Amino acid sequence: MRIAPERLLAFAAAALKAAGASDEAAEAAAFAMMHGSLHGIESHGIRLLPWYCEQIRTKLVKGAPDVTIERKRRAAVLVDADGGFGHLASYRAMDEACAAARDCGIGMAGVINSAHFGAAGAYALAAADAGFIGFVTCNASAAVTPFNSAEPIHGTNPIAFAAPNAGGDPFLLDMATSSIPWNRVLRSRTEHMPLPPQAALDDEGRFTEDAEAARALAPLGGDMFGYKGAALAGVAEILAGALTGMRLSTEHVPGALGDTGVGHFLMAIDPELFIPADRFAGRMAGYMAGFAARSSPERPVYAAGGPQWIARNERQKTGIPILPGLMAELSAEASIAGVDFP
Amino acid sequence: MRIAPERLLAFAAAALKAAGASDEAAEAAAFAMMHGSLHGIESHGIRLLPWYCEQIRTKLVKGAPDVTIERKRRAAVLVDADGGFGHLASYRAMDEACAAARDCGIGMAGVINSAHFGAAGAYALAAADAGFIGFVTCNASAAVTPFNSAEPIHGTNPIAFAAPNAGGDPFLLDMATSSIPWNRVLRSRTEHMPLPPQAALDDEGRFTEDAEAARALAPLGGDMFGYKGAALAGVAEILAGALTGMRLSTEHVPGALGDTGVGHFLMAIDPELFIPADRFAGRMAGYMAGFAARSSPERPVYAAGGPQWIARNERQKTGIPILPGLMAELSAEASIAGVDFP
């Protein structure tokens, strides 16, 4: 079953409003979920809708937050999400970072008192769509061990980076700093499939490919180079958690009442800072062309974001695929909200 | 054989000056090499001295460059290395980025017309030592394939990040975005040792553990997650190469005459921007303590930089170990330069 993106977007916004979200918070959250659903990132797509609505209905997260912006220095603003979800605050934060980058060359925003913000790449892409280089990171509840340990210290702490490419689709990195996300473990349990090697650990802190035995995730890099993934997770921890004064991953309590002490970090750079726009465009085009030159139908090679643009192009034409289980959940949400399901 | 750090530093500076480097360029390069030698990063330590001296003697790289700084926007400067090595320009660039961060909250510097700058972590650490969060990246001659390809597109493109930690040693990440550097392949050939799995590729673009067969390096993440390492290499490519208008990795010609069109990217953030200094220090201390709490003598767990501080503490006491082969090279350099060897 496939649903046209614009119809799914409208449904998501309507359901969130029915649950108690303000227009602006609902639209930002719906837009961020569509980023996931449109680009084939199902984990951060429309499947989050019932979870978001439930948190608003139960007032775990504020549906109509009063998002405020305070300029702290010439190129830095602090955005207070007021205990709401991170989508609205993060889109605004990236707008502010881009404005500061236009003024000062580089700009940044910290977001405080926030909650889940979906895919970090949504905000990095917003920067690239506005003509800026964007960087976004966030930490999350501890599920990933440090290198050579059995006990989690980091969340899956995503890093996202995007750069505009005048001649085509932008460069877009959006990655967890663990090899796999926790929902990959859950899915492998349901499907009785093995996990990839060196991606998860058991009770004893040994690598396991048995999803039932998995208790923690391993940092990107596995048994020899996992210190690199763990260090990248630390970058997220320091920028999103320590710099903002918000929670460390070990302090996050997933789903707990009022657990909205989440921080995000967003940054933008003006790519026309050092060289004229056409020269930057030429450099980017040259870089991106290198991937096409190495690609063949048998062995496709993509720049970061390539698979996402393929998903987007296809889904814009044929709609967003929804599996039966999710379809039932979304129908149920439509009934609760009293809105039409597309 | 061990040599006291301060004696090795003085020797390196003297040899560089004898080869034709200006006082300031020689001292910056010597200091950057000591960063490597002191912290156990031998690949970027004193072993580079003969190579640096040779490039200055043959005028491949300018020994006495006129490094200039141009403010492009309020928080962004462009540093022209004037065809010299990157050390002096990069230390100055990080100074400027920190000054801009004090003023604007965040600051950045691009370096153009540069050459090899040693370990990226040296400049990130300089920021942390000055009380700032630092980020540094650079690209390098193409040796690393994109994900799912046989043909290199990126260099080992390092990423470095450091954050001050008032209660102890800073957080310091300094990593290649490939699993291993090329000199690991060379060393494995000499020692007839296998390479780690999924770190290098043969002529056909298949993973190989045979150092003799290795023709290219693989991005961090191996056969399943190498798209993450490749995307991180792209961040370096875009910030150090495209943003500055300098060379892409595929355009670098290692060792070629006048190949100094290298760009670097440096950034600093004031950690007292959003919260008071003592609160940031508390957040950092809490984060760093998490590693100590997970560590045991049998299974040590470190925050990023931990192994480097162990090496530094030991080498400050006992000196920097120099293997016989390198000792012979350094003695030869001392003879050419006409300076005393410690």
Helix and strand topology:
Two copies of one chain form a homodimer.
Chain A (H helix, E strand, L loop, with lengths): L1 E2 L1 H15 L3 H16 L10 H9 L10 E6 L2 E5 L5 H19 L1 E9 L6 H9 L3 E6 L20 E5 L7 E5 L6 H10 L8 E2 L14 E2 L4 H21 L19 E8 L7 H18 L11 H13 L1 E2 L2 H14 L5
Parallel strand pairs in A: 3-4
Antiparallel strand pairs in A: 1-11, 2-3, 4-10, 5-6, 5-10, 6-7, 8-9
Helix pairs in contact in A: 1-2, 1-3, 2-4, 4-5
Question: What would you say this structure looks like, in words?
Answer:
The structure is a homodimer. The termini of chain A are close together. Chain A is α+β, with helices and mostly antiparallel strands and about 350 residues long. The first copy, chain A, is built from ten helices and eleven strands. Chain A has a seven-stranded mixed beta sheet, with helices on both faces. A two-stranded antiparallel sheet of chain A has the order 1-11. Chain A has a two-stranded antiparallel sheet with strand order 8-9. In chain A, α1 (about 5-20) packs parallel to α3 and α4 runs parallel beside α5 (about 120-130). Chains A and B meet through β4, β7, α7 and α8 of A and β4, β7, α7 and α8 of B.
